[in-house]
Please model this.
Amino acid sequence: MSPPTYPRTTSVPGDDQPTAVAVTGLAPTHHRNVPDSARSAALELHEVTKTYGSHPPVPALRGVSLTVYAGELVAIVGPSGSGKTTLLHIIGTLDRPSSGTVRIDGIDVAGLDDRQLAALRARSIGFVFQQFFLAEHQAALENVADGLLYAGVEVHDRREMAAQALNAVGLADHQHARPTTMSGGERQRVAIARALVGAPAIVLADEPTGNLDSHTGEQILELLQDLNKRGATIIVITHDHDLANRLHRQVHMRDGLIVSDTTTTPPHTDANSTTKDQ
Amino acid sequence: MSATTSLIPARLRSGDMARVASVGLRTRRLRAALSALGIAIGVAAIVAVLGLSSSSQAGLLSEIDRLGTNLLTVTNGQTFTGQAATLPLTAPPMIGRIDPVTEVADTGDVSTANVFRSPLIPSIDTNALTVDAASLNLLPAVGTSVAQGSYLNAATAIEPAVVLGAAAAQRLGIDHVYRGERVWLGGMWFYVIGILKPAVLAPEIDSSVLVGYTAASNYLDYTSTAPNGQTTTGPPTTIYVRAQNSQVNAVDNVLADTADPENPSYVDVSQPSAALTARADAQGAFNGLFLGLGAVALLVGAVGVANIMIISVLERRSEIGLRRALGATRGQIRAQFLSEAILLALLGGAVGVIAGALATTVYAHTKHWAVVVPTEAWAGGIASAILIGAIAGLLPAIRAARLSPTDALRTV
Model:
C-alpha cells in the first residue's frame, strides 16, 4: 500500500515527471558527482525581468538568469528591495515575468494559463513561508495533508503521506497536535513537511528562519540541509548572509540583478555530502 | 509537451469541498451562528406563519367536517317591494318531502318580543338578543347540543320556558341553570330550562333565546293564519335542512322552489359550511403582512451573510494566498467561498425551519389543531436560504478568487 520510504512519488496523479529522480528514497543521491549538463534542471530562468506599474515603471528584476538543478540547496540572498521576493513569486509561478522565460521542471510557464499554473504549483512547487501559514484549527497531520489537497490525492493517501512527511521532519509524535500548542520551530517543521509532502520539484522557502530564534533557526536550517541530502531541491530566499553562507550555493542579488553566484562547501557538512561541483 | 497537456488541475472531491467550505464556519463558530441567525429568523417566521395558518385552517376545516357540510339554511328573503317576505307555513313539511333531505328544523323570529334579566332593565337594553320560536328537533339539525339543563320537549314547548343560546346566556349573566331561574320575556316571566353550546354552523342561534312554537303563540302572540283561515303557530323564518352529503347541491337547487313555490325569489338559501370554508381560506390573506416581515428578515439576513463573507475574505487573505500556492485554482477559491456562504445560509435555513415547525407544533397543540407544516413552507424556506446564500456569497467569492496570490500572501 504505502512505500516504505519517504517521500514517495507514485501515488500523485499526473506526477510522471523526472522530478521523481530527485526525491526518491532516503539514501543520499549521487547526482552531485554528475556533470551539470547531464543533470535535470529543476528551475531555469533566462533574462527574466519584472516591472511594476507604468507611471513611472519600477523595475524589480532587470534580467535574471539562473539555473537550479535537481538536488541543489540554493540561497537567494540580498537586502530588502533587491528583488528577491519578486523572484520568489516568479519562481513560484504566483506572478508572471514581464519578459524572459521561466522553466519549472522543464515546463515553460509562459504557455500556461492560470489553471495550468495552479496545477503546476500543486504538483511541482512546495512553499515554506516565514509566517508558517498553518491552519490553527487543524492538527499537524491535516495541515501537512492539505499540501496535497489540490493535487488530487485521496484523503486516505494524503494522511498516510503526511504522516511520513511529519516523520521526515522529526515530528512523528506530533501528528495530532494543533499548531497553537507547538513552538515556532515545530510549526515551521510542519510547514516544511507540508511543502515536501508531494515531493515537488522545487521547495521554495521564504525566510524560513525569519520568525524563529537563532537556535531554532539553526535546527530548521539543519533540517533543510538534511532533507536536501535526501534529495529535495530547496531554494531559500533570505536576507541573512550568515544563513546563506551555510548553504552550498549562494545567489546574491542587488537592485534586481544577480551580482554573484557562488558555490561553496558548507563548513560543517559531513564527508558524504561534500560536493565536487565547484 | 505531454507535460504541459497533463497540467490539469485536480478536482476537489465532494468531501474535501465540504471540508474546505466549512473551514470558516468551524473556526469562527459564534460569528457563523450570529450571521446565520438573521436567515434563521426569517425562515422561521415564514415557516411559522404558513404552518400556523395551515394548521388553523386544518383545525377549522376539521371542525366544519365534524359539524357536517350538508347543512342548508333557508331564510325568508325580501319581496320585490323590499319588505320582509314570509315563508309559507307549509315550507318545512314540503322540504321534508324532498327525498335526500334527512332532517328539517325551523325557527321563527319573534321580533315583537325582547328578553331581559328582569323587568327593571330599561327596554332599550336588549343586548341584541332575539327571541325565536324553535322546533323540537333543532339541535341535531344545526349540530349543537345543550351545555346545561335540557332542550325543549313536547311538554315544555307549550309552557313559558326558554332555552338560552350560548351567547345569550352570557349576555344575560346566566351561567348555570338553577331551579326557578327565569328571564323577563315579552312582559312575563319565562323559566330557563337549558343553555346551549355554541352552534358554529348557525351562529344566529347563539344570540337567541328559544321558546316553543306553541308557547310563542300562546304567550307572545306569534301566530299566523293558515290557508283555511284558522289561526295557528308560525310562521318559520329560518329552516335548517340536512341533506345526504352526495345530494347537497341537488337539494340546494330545489330548496327555494319547494319552500315557496309561488315566489321562489322571496327565499334565500345558503350553505353555512361553505361560508366557513371560505373564511378558512380567507385567513391566509392576513398572512401577507407576516410573510412580508419574514421576507424582510431574510433580506437582512442575506445582507448579514454577504457582509460577513466580505470581511471573511479580507481576513483570510493569507489563507487564500496559501491555497493558491498549494495549487488551488481561482475557480476552487471561488467555489470555496460560495459554498461557505451557501452552507452558512443553509444552516440558518435549517434552524429556521426547525424553529418555525416547532412554534407551529406548540401553538397548534394548545389549540388542538392538527399540525400542518406545508411542503412549500419548509422546502421554500430551505430553497430560499440556499438562494440567498448563493447571492450573498457571489460577490465575496468573486473577490476572493480575483485576489492575486502575491497580494494575498503579502503580510499586512
